[in-house]
Predict the 3D structure of the following.
Amino acid sequence: EVQLVESGGGLVQPGGSLRLSCAASGFTFSSYWMHWVRQAPGKGLVWVSRINSDGSSTSYADSVKGRFTISRDNAKNTLYLQMNSLRAEDTAVYYCARDRDSSGYKDWGQGTLVTVSS
Amino acid sequence: DIQLTQSPSFLSASVGDRVTITCRASQGISSYLAWYQQKPGKAPKLLIYAASTLQSGVPSRFSGSGSGTEFTLTISSLQPEDFATYYCQQLNSYPPTFGQGTKLEIK
């Protein structure tokens, strides 16, 4: 059974940093591209970032470019999102999701809440 | 970026009703469209991919159609568990954008 478990969310002050993790199991993690998607409270889904299977290629939404860094450790079956210079508008539930080659994201984690507030 | 506009944003319907949600893309995306269902406090669930392919395990009352710029999600006979928010997503080009969502409520 595929499992994606996010962790690392919490309350952080504006300008602060946080690193999210997504522990994967039940599939060959190193074979799949992975994504982060976020959802602000009461709002819709917004794609944040993606990384290819070996970590050599990444993409970001304009809203987080230069502040967030996606990475992965295939030996540990773990995806990361390093978030720096956090803003109030980054407050959201952050989900990791497994890519399926342009066929949608079938597998999602449960999400981890990031709250940016003083 | 490709914009996806869903209509309606809110939909009130009864159990047994047939409902249709539309997703329009700002430019052609071939059939690279997925539909998701999300319930409060839960992660999205993939219903349809490639515009019309039903994800394994999803009830056959859900169907999708369209290509290019206009797509529809149809639920043939609403069940109590179908009341949720639905999102379309384009996977034709980066960034892979989502529609704003359609909240389906019980009448």
The mean pLDDT of chain A is 97. Chain A touches chain B at residues 35, 44-47, 50, 59, 61-62, 95, 100, 102-106, 108-111 (CB under 8 Å). The two ends of chain A are 40 Å apart (CA to CA).
